[in-house]
Amino acid sequence: MRLRIVAPLALFLGLFCPLSGQWLKYPTAGVPQTADGKPNLAAACPRTPDGKPDLSGLWIMPTKRPGNPDFPGCQPVSDEFINIAASLPGGLPYRSWAADLVKTRRTEQRVNDPMSHCKPIGPVRLYTWNGPEKMAQTPGLLIVMNELDSSFRQIFTDGRALPADPNPTWNGYSAGKWDGDTLVVQTTGFRDGLWLDATGNPLTDAAKLTERFHRPDFGHLDIEITVDDPKAYTKPWSVTLHQVIDLNTDLLDFYCAEDEKDAGHLSSK
Predict the structure, then answer these.
(1) pLDDT tens for residues 80-108?
(2) Which end of the chain has a smaller Cβ tally under 10 Å, C or N?
(3) For residues 196 and 208, is the Cβ–Cβ distance under 8 A?
C-alpha cells in the first residue's frame, strides 16, 4: 500500500512516498491519448452536459524542488506551501502587526503552526500541500476531497448566497458561479488564526477568498486565488496555482494525529 512518511512536525518540510498497491495503478477512465498511446494532457478539457468545463479529477501541485536525500524517492512540498507569495513580486502587503507576527513565526520552527498540531490547514494550504485533492463536479455542487485527514469541502453552485452570520469554520463557506469557462468562487466565514503556508502568513476571520478555477485543457487546472483580508493586509492580493492531473491513482487515508508523537517535543529553540 502507499504510505505517507511525515518528518518530525517541527521540521520545515513534510514528505510523502508513493508505493505500489491496491487502487494505485487502476487506469483512469476517459483519458485522451496521443498517437503513440501516451496520455494527451493538452487535449480539450471534458465538459458537463450543460457545456461547462468539468473540473472533476484528481489534482496535485507540482514541485521543482529536489528530493530529500534522507527519504529517497519521496516528493517534497511546493514553493507555495512554504511561502504562498513565493512568486508574488514585492511580497505581501502586510499590516504592521501581521509583518511582525510573520517575523516571529520565522524564528519559531513552526511550533505554533496548526499543521504541527494536526489541526486543519484551510483551503489555500490544501492546494499547495504535497498530497492530491479530488474534485467531483455535480449540478449545483463541486465537492473537493483531500487526502490529508480525509477532509472535504463543499462549493455550492446552485445560486445560494453566502451566509450573513456564519459559524466560523476551517474551510469557510463557499458559493460559486460560472463566468464563461471560469468558475468563480467566494468563501467567507473562516476561523481566526489560519496559516496560509509554512512561513506563517496569516488568514483572519475577516478574510474573503475569491478563487477562479479554469481548466485550459485535459491535464491542467489553474486556480487564481485573491485574498481580501483587511485585518491582516493593506489591500487584496492574488496568486495563481497551477495543478496537474494525477492519473491511475486515487485518494488514500492519511490522518495526521494517528500515532503522532512529535507535538509534545516541539520547541522554538
Answers:
(1) 999 999 999 999 999 999 999 999 999 99
(2) C
(3) no
Q: Where do we find the cell 502587526?
A: 97
Distances from the Cα of 222 to the Cα of 52, 181, 225, angstroms = 16, 12, 10
Enter the pTM of the model: 0.87
CB 168 within 8 A of CB 189: yes
Burial class (CB in 10 A: 0-12, 13-18, 19+), 113: buried
- List pLDDT tens digits, range 10-32: 344 443 444 434 567 889 999 99
C-alpha cell at 75: 516528493
Contact, 93 vs 234, CB < 8 A?
A: yes
SS3 (DSSP) at 6: coil
Residue found under cell 521540521: 11
CB contact set of 41 (below 8 Å; sequence gap of 6+): 217, 218, 219, 220, 244, 245
Q: Say if strands 173-179 and 151-156 run parallel, antiparallel, or are unpaired.
A: parallel
Collapsing DSSP to helix, strand or coil, 163 comes out as coil
DSSP code of residue 95: -
DSSP 96: H
487546472: which residue's cell? 221
pLDDT range class, residue 263, cuts 50, 70, 90: low
